[in-house]
Batch of 2 targets.
Target 1
Amino acid sequence: MSFILITCDGRARRGELETVHGKIQTPVFMNVGTSAAIKGGVSTLDLKNLKCQVELSNTYHLHVRPGEDVIYKLGGIHKFFNWDRPVLTDSGGYQVFSLANLRNISEEGVTFASHFDGARIFMSPEVSMQIQSKLASTIAMAFDECPSSVADRSYIKNSCDRTLRWLIRCMDEMKRLNSLPETINNKQMLFGIGQGGIYEDLRIEHMQRITELDLDGYAIGGLAVGESNQVMYHIIDVIEPFMPKDKPRYLMGVGTPINILECVDRGVDFFDCVMPSRNARHGNVFTSAGQLNIMNEKFKYDSRPIDEECSCEVCSNYSRGYIRHLLKSGEILGMRLSVMHNLYFYNNLMEEIRAAIESGCFSEYKKEKSAVFSQRV
Amino acid sequence: MSFILITCDGRARRGELETVHGKIQTPVFMNVGTSAAIKGGVSTLDLKNLKCQVELSNTYHLHVRPGEDVIYKLGGIHKFFNWDRPVLTDSGGYQVFSLANLRNISEEGVTFASHFDGARIFMSPEVSMQIQSKLASTIAMAFDECPSSVADRSYIKNSCDRTLRWLIRCMDEMKRLNSLPETINNKQMLFGIGQGGIYEDLRIEHMQRITELDLDGYAIGGLAVGESNQVMYHIIDVIEPFMPKDKPRYLMGVGTPINILECVDRGVDFFDCVMPSRNARHGNVFTSAGQLNIMNEKFKYDSRPIDEECSCEVCSNYSRGYIRHLLKSGEILGMRLSVMHNLYFYNNLMEEIRAAIESGCFSEYKKEKSAVFSQRV
């Protein structure tokens, strides 16, 4: 299993990651189904029609409900939700530090209260790997600390050091788990996560140190948490030269269509974000002419699809007027159709980005699309 | 357009109703999508995979939101929700008398407050026909009064007389509307509704009087509103001989799978009920071995489909354990999958009923299935 860089266009990369669940064409946007389901009633059968390559689920949420033992006994997450393509599981780290209460961090790990029922939970590099091994995702993420974006420099530095020690423990534990006969996916991959806040030197140092370890991919964590786009782009510019060319690069939790264009342009391969599904549930949909809110009065009698240029199942079958009616009436189908369209929009955008890189015209494509995406219909 | 009685097995009837939107094979169960959408995120594309022949929407709900003018301007309900098979619209009468507040009934019609925003609405036979004509459904229902099931005999008698006078007004108005060039569906059918509470003589008299009028079908209204199954079956036994053999018969708002078997056995052709979708949203699903609640702890590790005998999209792809997890986690997809299964179960039951009547073994089929359907898994 390996990553092949097919071609580059500037810093934009067109790659292919081979996994035990098939090949991933990059740049790719992963579709977020936190609890092994896309919010809004979208099934894995729907996902196949939406050009989704990789589904992303969350270790913390699945640990809380239904518990990794349920998924393990039902044959792993692929059998659990009937999806034969790659799945990436987030390590739970981000949720432990953003959702859970009453945290107590030690060198060993983190003790915290579940946001669901307040139960005390202990999570550590080993525990996160054990859960992810039972889930049997294609790609596991390392368990890291996600310090507050307003934490001071010395806190961030210490946190980076600990995250590095935790990463080594993750690698050791994943190696052990992958060698066990009872493990469902013995070829589970592990991506490390670089941190460092908004401090250039800490970012570079951390990336240098984690890339000395032989991981299957490298993620940039702790961005898109409140800093400006310009700061985010700058941090990526700063650390990109220190990321290995022959490994996939994943910018966690990003972002808008324009963010994705800018970050592909800076050499990023993997993305994920709840934005397309969360926005859709409130009627905010993306189109080839810019964003629109389908609940707007002006779409009441509109017989056109959400996006006249779109060939998704929703745009091929339903009108703005109908979807507006559904959302205004509180019909769940309105959310589902909007989410489906937005996920298709993102997955199709990535397909276009890949084609643009292949044909060496990514910067023209980016310029043209950025102008459109900043508009409202 | 006409109704053909293909064969009978006892009083059970196997028929075919030709409509401007295709043929309906009877007995049939209509799938309820009150506001032009099945609750739980099920689309008309899904309905096609669920063996749904007829979708039922509600005039009162669509009048309140989005308003019949929106649907008319978008080309009628078929274009509105992208469905080319028959649609039956309920007249709004039942909802006016069950949902709306501050009713004032006169010979002319009913003034009431919308349950949605309290706005004053006037509905009459003419108004109901005008709304349904704008919706352009395949089959319109007559606007009737649905008196309380505890109303006394003299109230019911007066109400039946008024409902008959209203029916004649419905017919006149529908005839006028069908002749207008701006009408979307000039072949809209009209079914009359027989009332009479639990009074045998009033039921018979009302049915005799409405069947003197030349309608496209006849419905039995005002049942399944709290009386026992035995009373309901008895009333049907009493009025069935007075219903024309050559017209479709529709028992409104019924019912459980056992109710349907019993009423097919008493000569009913059309059914509708919110039960399969409402039950499903709370995890109550129907199977070939009886009902079960998928949220039960015992299904936590169950890798089997909801129903091992079922070939629906849900049972072909998802396990009890997964659907239980979704419902327990509040994931909308859990509702959607359960609703889809239950609708398929009902539509497939009707297909089996039709086959049993054709092969002359309906009473054996009914006996066998009734024993199973009363069980819990």
Target 2
Amino acid sequence: MIVVLESGIAETQIEEIIRVLHDHKFDVHRSTGVQHTVLGAIGVHPEFDHRQIELLPGVAEVLRVTEPFKLASHAFKREGSIFDIGGVKIGGPEVVVMAGPCAVESEEQIFKIAKLVKDAGAKILRGGAFKPRSSPYSFQGLGEDGLKLLRAAANEFQLKVVTEVMDKSQIDLIEKYADILQIGARNMQNYTFLKDLGKASKPVMLKRGLAATIEEWLMSAEYILSGGNQQVILCERGIRTFETATRNTMDISAIPVIKKKSHLPIVADPSHGIGIRDKVIPMARAAVAAGADGIIVEVHHDPDHALSDGAQSLYPDQFSQMMKEVRMIARAIERSIA
Amino acid sequence: MIVVLESGIAETQIEEIIRVLHDHKFDVHRSTGVQHTVLGAIGVHPEFDHRQIELLPGVAEVLRVTEPFKLASHAFKREGSIFDIGGVKIGGPEVVVMAGPCAVESEEQIFKIAKLVKDAGAKILRGGAFKPRSSPYSFQGLGEDGLKLLRAAANEFQLKVVTEVMDKSQIDLIEKYADILQIGARNMQNYTFLKDLGKASKPVMLKRGLAATIEEWLMSAEYILSGGNQQVILCERGIRTFETATRNTMDISAIPVIKKKSHLPIVADPSHGIGIRDKVIPMARAAVAAGADGIIVEVHHDPDHALSDGAQSLYPDQFSQMMKEVRMIARAIERSIA
Amino acid sequence: MIVVLESGIAETQIEEIIRVLHDHKFDVHRSTGVQHTVLGAIGVHPEFDHRQIELLPGVAEVLRVTEPFKLASHAFKREGSIFDIGGVKIGGPEVVVMAGPCAVESEEQIFKIAKLVKDAGAKILRGGAFKPRSSPYSFQGLGEDGLKLLRAAANEFQLKVVTEVMDKSQIDLIEKYADILQIGARNMQNYTFLKDLGKASKPVMLKRGLAATIEEWLMSAEYILSGGNQQVILCERGIRTFETATRNTMDISAIPVIKKKSHLPIVADPSHGIGIRDKVIPMARAAVAAGADGIIVEVHHDPDHALSDGAQSLYPDQFSQMMKEVRMIARAIERSIA
Amino acid sequence: MIVVLESGIAETQIEEIIRVLHDHKFDVHRSTGVQHTVLGAIGVHPEFDHRQIELLPGVAEVLRVTEPFKLASHAFKREGSIFDIGGVKIGGPEVVVMAGPCAVESEEQIFKIAKLVKDAGAKILRGGAFKPRSSPYSFQGLGEDGLKLLRAAANEFQLKVVTEVMDKSQIDLIEKYADILQIGARNMQNYTFLKDLGKASKPVMLKRGLAATIEEWLMSAEYILSGGNQQVILCERGIRTFETATRNTMDISAIPVIKKKSHLPIVADPSHGIGIRDKVIPMARAAVAAGADGIIVEVHHDPDHALSDGAQSLYPDQFSQMMKEVRMIARAIERSIA
């Protein structure tokens, strides 16, 4: 922590500030500059509330030096993490495509879609079983039956499974059927839940909150990592800005920023990032071009009759076209897509 | 729903769009203007995903006509709601002050603070018993023991109690001790939890999410109301913007906007809205001046040694000064503070 | 400037970074902590681009220590500035009310409005003479004729005049008629224009840009101050956020923040901040309650037939009601309104 | 314009609203639905302030039907515009690369950089001659001498020239030397200047304002188009959001949105969008992948000694690497880069 003092501060005030820092068990280094005296306060107190120093008379500003996350940082682990999920490697040279419907609707639906995404090159099948919706009258998902169908369809076509876990009570159940536990944007800062996920045995894909900074997102990942679960995949899905032409603003620059700050793999979700079908493909291409380790895309064999989110689901031939394009883009940056 | 068609659209395309609207059970009125043909699609489908129409060829734009909330709207209930909480009326001419520490720390602490806020004119005692923190090493709250102390201190000084409920599993427990259930900003769109709160027997104070629009906030209130709990109090506590000089940007204009759109009472939380002690008082004054039905403020008898959020807690004499000022401001707009 | 080095950095890399800092004429202080080595780089280079250091290998982060503005800061001038504008003092105990139409439309109109705002207690008459509009077909203002009418009406009723200057070519002309030069939000970062205003002989009221941080706003004020014009009044008029229920989000918290950081007076513009008549009054009250040194409000004797911005102009009786309320609020914080 | 009335409104109120609409010369169509009565108000009043209707008693909401821009819209011109700038076509199948230094510094510098960007495949040379900076002590550009050098270097290597015009007084001068007039983000809503540009003889590249919506950006383009200059190129360069890890958030999704709404070409500026060298290349790739018609990139033969913006300028070998990558990406979407 760096404590910048006001110019013209009295020596007695400086001594009082140093005394308070000592009380909080910081070692203090003092540098006197032309314009400012600056105190370096060194100690290991990740939970220290720096506003306590900011409010002392004579303090102009307090700057935090250490990033609040460690296990998630590149300083902690130099090379990028690669997670092997039953043979599918996330974070390696291959860009992994996860695809499937918003919600599992029926056996016929999920088998049809699983086949078509597999044929086009996807490695992981997505699909929701629990769908709490903003309207209580909307389709709420098939529950455990949906999970069973999802697993069966994935097995039939040699795919892995990613699906959302809504709260602690679902972790055990979903671990029985899924290979990756997806955590939604609204749960990104649900700390008690993150702690529980730290003890889960399956990898976690953590979506970025709508109003979360990249640093806060990495702090949430840190929570899971510090609980003992080393397999956290980050997923960018758009942030909220003043722009209203798109549902969210997909922050493509988060991809190179995460690559610089962290060793964790990062995946992009253009379907939720842009929110409407006709712009999903350009955003999927942009994400791969920017260096994403994977993309997760909503696809439906019949979007016009999907029970949820049909408007942002790709048609089968659009998905094939997208795969063709992102495959060539991956090659341009010396990566590959199956 | 209003469907604006592209200029120069062919008659056959218009007919196809009308056909799709009929399929979705809408009555369709057609108006042909100089520049545009516009279709009015009338029907009762609150859960209809209007993007399905937006994607049809020939559609320029789709405008939703009805607000998605009803029970929360002023159209539903003309006069403002007043909730009587054991004699304390929220939403009436009196501006209610809720005050207390961030967290209950000990019997001595909560009794001292209860006495001082009561003496200054507060009607409701606030204090947290469960404190999931961003760092696992920080103080996590006293749990049920904290609730007991909070209730005892409130009873001793004839105060009501508001405290946060983190998830469904805590509702029954907290209803035993509290008069108002506070729902945090991060839970504002946790729909399964909102449904459970619709069945709770105590009033709910719903904080606005950091990235939530006013409309989304009212939709979350609607969820609770539609579950059968008619007593929802809204609480503004700041939104996230590009400004970094303050932790959040407290949206004071939400107060008159809510007063126009809804009959529900609205309270402001300047402590979390501004995040640092020296600016809490001006923001408390602004909230009352703008027409808030109450304010909730963090106060501690010894903020320098508070176990959490000391930096945004007022000193006792600051709280008294604030009460004096907001009392005069309330009078300026023909309201009162005890 | 504080340069935080990556943990585990090699000694030779540290030496290289120190060499580069010396090349840029910084004095370097080194502190070695448990987790990090930190370099304090001291020197007077306000224009130094710190990204040059951020990009060096081994650098984790660069923190700027000194605020980029000086003349505008409270450290430079401890007591708040008070500007005496022909007897009207801005920044003192009195809260000054500026009021008038969006645009000067005719002699009859401006004299009517001048009389009514004077009668209600305003000290300064506002009104636009040059109105570049988003549509080329809209009313564009009366130009110099408008300025003459504005001055005549102000003189008749012993008011001062504030009006907007759009660019350098208008400065001399407008200085002949106005007492305060208003600079619009879109010009806040027009640096060549700010330099010209530094040489103007009249006080400047600088509106905050829609996407400007408080720090950037103070930097723009610094530009004018450093040019030699010591009389800069700041004016908050709303920032752009994701909220769509209001045109802008008026940042009331900017008022106490500016009061802490700067000695310059700050005024609030609720008419543009909220953008619609029925919420102007609560926001005016909130601004005064938060400690604004003045408010500027659009008023029209006949808003329904105003040639511009009628929808955000107050009716005469609304303005009188507002004055009554803000007068009592000012008293609550030991200030006054005429 | 669609006027949604409050439910339960009296017939006399409806008649009064219709009367006001007729007064404003609108044709009114009335539809009575189950929950709401809706009025369609049809007429050609692009400058009408719809807040005048919003404030009438009984009005719940007013929805604007027609987009405020016409000449810029796809409805006006179905196929995408292609501008031929001395043989370089912008908006066609080729993705055009514009590159060069932030500022022209010397003959040697601009010739060196012109050669290297030409060799790597750029078609247009960028470089600033007038550089108003936030600090008055920084390098302010070479002025007309800079323009001469820029032109000479471009001619030597068969490149076209793009450079920024700061205000009206510079238009004639810069048209003598440049092929494209660049308009900075801070001037995007300077309407008097936009009008002047409508009469310019050279194509204009209009940068998006930091807080501008896509619709506002297109309205600014409309201003130039309606003045008679048909050649407007849009340039995305980042918007301001709450994220602080990047200087701005580059809105890649603006590219497909513009492609849907408008026939104008769109170019991306990753150097200013991301603001730091090490993330420029991934963002350049993302822009091309998303469908941009061009990119504009800062390159310097010696960024460590550049007089401005060195930290976001690419090294020569980085630029070559970038060109190799974007060339392959262009191919993936059936476009090309020289």
